[in-house]
Amino acid sequence: MSNALEKLKQLTSKISSYELTRKENLQRLKELFLVLKLEEKVNSFEDIFEYKAINLSAVSLQKENFGEIQKGKYFQLLAITKVNGRSKNISLAYYGRVENVEEKLKENVIEFVIRYRFEKSFINLEHYNDLLKNFHKEPNE
Questions:
Q1: What pTM was computed for the model?
Q2: Could you tell me what percent of the chain has a pLDDT over 90?
Q3: What are the start-end ranges of the H helices in the chain?
């Protein structure tokens, strides 16, 4: 029994940690939203979560080569939305050739995208958790 109790304690601690991390992430994400002046393209901070995704061009976000630039490419922050049932890219910010972008700005944009994706994953988790409630039925039904 104590083993099960210990596992429950660990799980509770992990969930609490995620919620704290999520809260801190949202706070920093709001700061970056303002630093990057995204309110010029998006009505409110909350509206960014209406997009299917937010990506960037000219910088890798893959683990193996995270942050590497693609010289000669244009550095942009892109939102993916649905228009008439089709995905469409919307430029949220254009920064010019990636090799000419100030390092701090590049870091802020990358951080914004990662923090956005982190929060979006929680939103998706909540959405699917709610959908799963449709399947909570008695056995043999």
A1: 0.85
A2: 72
A3: 2-35, 103-132
